[in-house]
Amino acid sequence: MNKTILLLLTCCLTINLSARNEQIIQDLREDYTRIGCNLHSYEYPIAGTNGYQNTPAPKGYQPFYISHYGRHGSRSAWGDKHYVGLLNTLYRADSLGVLTRTGSELIPLAQAVLASYNYADGRLTDRGEREHAAIAQRMYERFPEVLKKKNIHIQSIGSMIPRCLISMAAFTNSLTSLNHTIRYNFDTGEQTQKYIDCTGSDLPVKPAHDSIQVALLKLLPYDETVVLNRLFTDTTGLNLNVRHLQRDIYETAAISQDFDLDCNIFRYMDTATVYYYVMEKTYYMALYFCNVPQVGAKRLHNANIALKEWIDKADRAIESGDYAADLRFGHDYPLMTIVSNMGIGEIGGDEMQPEEIEQRWIAHHNLCMASNIQMIFYRKGGQRGGEKGGEDILVKVLYNEIERPIVGLTPVEGCYYRWEDVKAMWQQNF
User: What is the mean pLDDT of the chain?
Assistant: First the structure.
């Protein structure tokens, strides 16, 4: 990595936890499950709170079309390495009589996670289905002008991976339960996968990514004594790798919420070390998939194929009036690449230097399970295509159901942008 960047990172960050992102620390105190970062179950804004707004459209405009991409819902992880590794350490300590009472309390919690995993890699959980069903219901209630009409036509495509297809089923079944007249076209396959999963290879930028991440993590505090004192009376004969042990605890804890398990496994580690693992995931995702000039910005062109698909389908809906919505169900990293290339502010579209990530990018806000983007299209009176030509089409962007700005564009009013302006900005990337 460039020596100038290393020097800048060293100057900008300190190893004192008190100098860390206070919002992250406060969020974790409010809800420990947020420590899971991209494994964190979906959080949605509640009407009447600061996070939720429903800014009125300019006078005379009504929504008529929705373009959507949703990450699959809560799922299991891959392999039993961390759960079994943790349990084996605890069993060995117990057999040697050096496990504390606190340590013994951890055994049934880890066993519950292992049992819930049940050797089903990347499988959508019941919670994941509920997340998508609820998102669909809120979309229906928020935009009744689009989704309550009789015999509307919706196209829905999904990644070929089962957890995405089941998420799609949960979402569309929820809509159908509210409007039995909806007609769907469903699709999946190699062709749709090209724009559903559009991150491209990370190999060209991997050396820069890895060196920057290592430099950033070296500046964070990490403790190995607290976990030992909490779990063991004596470590003689355990042959412990404390880094591996803490990784096992963290990964076991992070996935537990996706199985609807209410067990705060994080309490067995100290705050500074938990923060370290949160930032490890945060740096990984923000560097690779957001507008960081040294790394992620060089990859965003991979999402051009997705942007072209959004433009083509939106223009078709505008011209013909045949489609009320286009739904897509995919994965977290493609979603972030698409959103960053779209220029969606506060998520990935704003340019960030590596040393700014800690203060500006909060993983559990930006890339939790079932994260989604909804682009809502408005026209005067909500007319169907062909009824009135030449009028401005306006769009509003929601990310995780919260209104977001588009970087580099001036809204017509509030959070509403001219579709032609948005389209022209995107097309500059092609």
Answer: 92
Rounded-to-integer distance, Cα 15 and Cα 23, Å: 17
Count of residues for the chain? Answer: 430
**Half-sphere exposure (Cβ direction) of 82: Cα atoms closer than 13 Å:** 18
Q: Is the pTM of this model over 0.90?
A: yes
- 60 Ramachandran zone, left/alpha/beta (phi>0; psi -120 to 50): left
Question: From CA 69, how far away is CA 251, in angstroms rounded?
Answer: 27
Return the H-helix or E-strand segment holding 377. Answer: strand 372-380
Check residue 325 and give its pLDDT: 98
Burial class (CB in 10 A: 0-12, 13-18, 19+), 244: middle
Residues 258, 39 contacting (CB under 8 angstroms):
yes
CA distance 161 to 71: 12
How far apart, in whole angstroms, are the C-alpha atoms of residue 357 and residue 379?
Answer: 37
Nearest CA to 419 out of 300, 311, 307 is that of 311
Residue carrying the six token digits 């013909």: 320
Which tokens in the block code for residue 353? 């230097």
Q: Hey, how many other C-beta atoms are within 10 angstroms of the C-beta on 91?
A: 12
In one letter, which amino acid is 380? K
What is the residue whose two structure tokens read 């007319």? Answer: 383
Q: Which two tokens stand for residue 61?
A: 């405009």
Using CA atoms, how far apart are residues 169 and 186, in angstroms rounded to an integer?
A: 10
- Is the CB of residue 197 less than 8 Å from the CB of residue 338? no
Per-residue pLDDT at 6: 38
Separation of alpha carbons 201 and 214, rounded Å: 20
List Cβ neighbours of 251 (8 Å cut-off, separation of 6 or more): 77, 82, 83
Q: Give the largest CA-CA distance in the chain.
A: 80
Chain segment 281-320, per-residue pLDDT in tens: 999 999 999 999 999 999 999 999 999 999 999 999 999 9
